[in-house]
Amino acid sequence: MKGSPIGTLVPIAGTDGRTGEHYEHCAYLPAPLPPSVELSSATWTAVVYAEAALARLDQAARQMPEPGLLHNTTLRREAQSTSALEGTYAPIEEILGSDAEERMGLSTELREILNYVATAERAFAWIAERPLTLGLLESLQGLLVKGTPGEYRDAGRLRERQVFIGSERTPIARARFVPAPHGDRLRAGLEAWAAWIDGSHPAVPPVAQAALAHYQFESLHPFSDGNGRLGRLVIVLQLMRLGVLRYPLLVVSPWFEARRDQYQAELLALSRTGNWDAWVCFFVTGVGASATSTHERVDSMLALQAEMLREVRDAGVSGVAERLAGELIGSPVLRASQVRARHGVTHQGAMNALRRLAELGIVMEQPRRGGVSFIAPRVVALLSR
């Protein structure tokens, strides 16, 4: 990054905690974000498409009778994909059928993914009325890494050590990227980033503002763990804060996951060249494609909901079983205890309703630790696409 027009190299020295060897190297400190950027006509076309796709998605959510119904499933789909980008994977049916409170017996991977769900829920509740702040980010990071291998001694605070991006076996001198040194310069950089996000930038369209902010956050790499997942969560938070989205249904990580190498290369290229246009074009293309695919999945889920309700009603089924059929797109993995609490019926009444849906082929009974669960395979298949 020597000679970067949007950052500087600063000398660092210390002991590599992996090898115990002393190092002297340089870290990259990004300059404050600019008030505006020059965008090519091709990038403006991508910006217009992305913002139109986001508007269509948000309009579709506003027209849904229960927009919150799909929140659980879309959030868990994002949780699966954003974690996979960092090398953590669990099947979608396990993610849908588990709760963060059920810590015992969960794999490390599943705990990490469910931590993301809890983190995003807290963030969405906050951003509805308040701006992004350094204190919020620190609390979100602490929740994200709680009880995982990424829960270092500085969890819930800006990192207190130097980090390096690259293979664990790569010497620091050959690391792919060395983010800003910890300490006052890192804190000042993140505070400036938060102030920029909360400021007014009329010359930069909202989705391009999200592109600039995402680069800056990932370049600062402010925490010891969880920077990628938090940075992608901030994309949705920022679009909500800017009024582009009202409902947090946007799923962005699958597009970036499918292009992981390019995503990382584009971030690195921007640090080297200062070519905001290329980065914004790549980023907004991804956001536009993500908004379109999320909208298509929402439409497919609503069509499936109507199909399952029709099957139930054609069979003469009503009451709790009928209501459950309408709720499966939001809760495709159910246990009798959940049905009992949600619908105020006895355990036997809950089991009767679930088994009636199983007889119709709408759900399937599956053994699980401590009992049985019922899964809606068509809903899970849609989420897995």
- Radius of gyration of CA atoms, rounded to a whole number: 23 Å
**Which parts are unreliable, with pLDDT below 50 for 5 consecutive residues or more?**
none
Q: In what range is the share of β-strand residues?
A: 5-15%
Overall geometry comes to globular
Distance between the termini: 38 Å
Helix content: 55-70%
Broad CATH class of the largest domain? Mainly Alpha
Category from helices, strands and their pairing: mainly alpha
Largest sheet: 3 strands, antiparallel
CATH level 4 superfamily of the largest domain: Fido-like domain
How would you portray this structure in words?
This protein is mostly helical and about 375 residues long. The protein has 2 domains: about 5-295, Fido-like domain (Fic-like fold), CATH 1.10.3290; about 315-385, Winged helix-like DNA-binding domain superfamily/Winged helix DNA-binding domain (Arc Repressor Mutant, subunit A). It contains 15 helices and 5 strands. It has helices at about 40-65, 70-85, 90-95, 110-125, 135-145, 185-200, 205-220, 225-240, 255-260, 260-275, 275-315, 320-325, 335-345, 345-360, 375-385; strands at about 5-15, 20-30, 335, 365-370, 370-375. The strands form 2 sheets. A 3-stranded antiparallel β-sheet has the order 3-5-4. It has a two-stranded antiparallel sheet with strand order 1-2. Strand 4 and strand 5 form a beta hairpin. Helix 7 packs antiparallel against helix 8 and helix 7 (about 205-220) crosses helix 11 (about 275-315). The mean pLDDT is about 95.
